[in-house]
Amino acid sequence: MLERMRYFILRALRNMRQWPFLCSAAVLTMAVALATVATFFLVVVNVEQLSQRWTKEIQLIAYLQKAPSRQDIPAILNDLKAYPEVDSVSYVSPDDAMNRFRQRLGDDASLLEGLNSQLLPASIELNLRPEFRDQEHISRIIERLENSLEVDDLRYGQKWLERFNSFVNMLRFVGIVLGGFLLLAALFIVSNTIKLTLYARRDELEIMALVGATMRFIKVPFLLEGAIQGLLGGLISLVFLMLSFSLIISRSLNSFWLTPNDFNLLFLSFNQQLILVFSGVVLGLLGSLSSLRRFVRI
Amino acid sequence: MIQLYNVTKKYSSDSVAVKDLTLQIGKGDFVYITGASGAGKTTFLRMLYAAEKPTRGQILINKKNITRIRGPQIPYLRRQIGVVFQDFKLLQSRTVYENVAFALEAQGKKRYEVSKKVYQALKEVGLEHRLQRRPLELSGGEQQRIAIARALVVDPLILLADEPSGNLDQDVTLEIMELFKRANARGTTVLLATHDHSLNQRFPRRVITLDQGKLVGDQQPLQV
After folding, report:
1. Which of A10, A181, A288, B2 has a CA that sits 20 to 30 A from residue A246's CA?
2. What domains are there in chain B, each with its CATH number?
3. Are A288 and A169 within one domain?
């Protein structure tokens, strides 16, 4: 059994050495296909991550027509906190607002000197529970707020966020469809490349059948060869992704102004890396299996 | 050893390769299959090693009916049959040793057994000094001798040869015939398809003649 296995592996390796061009074509095809699918996966995962962060940062701000008196504030906040949709509430007095403004201006804060802090409106900031961060719930809250408080203006990034979320959903959908197509295309290309290698070796296949080799004896080395090529393709795609991610994409994107400071682009987890390499093996096996079925007849 | 009963092979309704062939070949016989091109010689041989299935009739090899043989059983039939072709069918990318070893490896023989038998088989055909050469570095006659070594290395019960000397000159043909005779002397049944009548004159044996797929002659040798 062991000797058999050794013989099969040696033959698979020798076949690969004998047809280096065809072998590298198959390996590279698989590497490119796997890298493309994995890249798309990374894009979707990272955009989703970004959207989750942005959703977390969203809050509803109600600017009040008139700052409430100090003793009314706790009651108002308690009322609002009782809303099931609300996670936390904070009151921003005109003074607080002015301080924030000042901080944000930094070196130019002197511009604000001599200005009356009452110039800025008092506001209430509401952080919503994640499950209520959508248009329908926010509209309902707004309605209630307008009834209970004298609201001057309401701000929230909802419209933009909804659009962004539908974009992410579409991206996920396109990702699944496109990824599926890419994998099918990869399988097709790999199967054809392996078919080419089999075509180049049709004499060998014919002679093997002629001297009484069983189907298993004929097929196993080719399947092994497909699996080894798939393994190599998977490893190459992984190394390529790692290098391009750490050397180019991560560096340039992490310094990009759109991403928050503590936001790190996600790379494939260890398990996902294993899956990538394993997919290569499966791809190679399926590729040789499908072409062997058509080529090897006794 | 080989029995055919009313064997017909049709490729299509108007293309009949072998028609109603009934004959028997005994164990250890040496038989020429002759006839013009297209007489059905090759189809006849191909049916014996199950590369073709007869349309009608029965074929028995070593008392076993192979007419309806199924895919997984074919390799085991072929291990009893060595086949030699006009175009040698050698693997050009492999060495002489590897080409002959291939037949034993395909049957799952152990490595030490393979090397011993390959050396013996190549010695038998006089090419034991060319082990590491590639077929294209050798002459046509030498290539055919490798093909014969590959066919004989598995100790087949039957040796089928389809125009084995078709590409070779007279002297080399005689050498090749000598190898077939020696195999036959050791008990292997030999069927040699050829349209070269001079072979029978030099080595008189039973001659089966086909014409358009039909048996038109079955002559025993005048002297053996």
Report:
1. A181
2. 28-51+72-219 (3.40.50.300)
3. yes
Query: Residue A283 carries which side chain, given as an amino acid letter?
Result: L
A65 & A141 share domain: yes
The three-class DSSP label of residue A37 is: helix
Which residues does chain A have within 8 Å of residue B155's beta carbon, measured at their own beta carbons?
A: none
pLDDT, one tens digit per residue, over A238-265 is: 999 999 888 877 666 666 545 555 567 7
Give the percent of chain A with pLDDT over 90: 9
Asked if B106's CB is within 8 angstroms of A203's CB, the reply is no
Residues A268 and A191 in one domain: yes
Residue A291 identity: S
User: Cα–Cα distance between A95 and A119 in angstroms, integer?
Assistant: 9
* Predicted confidence (pLDDT) at residue B223 exceeds the cutoff of 70: no
User: Which among A101, A122, A156 is the end of a domain?
Assistant: A156
CATH code, A131: 3.30.70.3040
The residue out of A121, A156, A191 marking a domain boundary is: A156
Q: Do A3 and B93 touch (CB under 8 A)?
A: no
Residues A191 and A245 in one domain: yes
Adjacent-strand bridge partners of B81: B158
Q: Which domain holds residue A89?
A: 59-156
| Shortest alpha-carbon distance between residue B133 and chain A (Å) | 16
Of B89, B110, B111, the CB nearest to A207: B89
| Among candidates A3, A206, A212 on the partner chain, residue whose Cβ is nearest the Cβ of B106 | A212
Q: Which chain A residues have a beta carbon less than 8 Å from that of B107? A: 211-213
Query: What is this model's ipTM?
Result: 0.84
Distances (CA, A) of A206 to A175, A215, B78: 43, 12, 13
**Chain A: nearest CA to B172, how far in angstroms?**
24
| One domain, residues A167 and A236 | yes
Check CB contact of A264 with chain B, cutoff 8 Å.
no
Strands (E), A156-223: none
Same domain, A152 and A70: yes
Query: A71-102 pLDDT, tens per residue?
Result: 888 888 888 888 888 888 888 888 888 888 88
Residue A21, chain B, CB below 8 Å: the answer is: no
Please name the residue that has the structure tokens 């499908």. Answer: A290
Residues B138, B125: Cα–Cα separation, whole Å: 14
Which residues in chain A touch residue B111, judged by CB atoms under 8 angstroms apart?
3
> Which residues of B fall within a CB distance of 8 Å from A203?
89, 91
What's the domain count of chain A?
2
CB contact under 8 A, A7 and B105: yes
Residue B38 DSSP code: T
Tell whether A167 and A50 lie within a shared domain. yes
Asked if A3 lies within 8 A of B110 by C-beta distance, the reply is yes
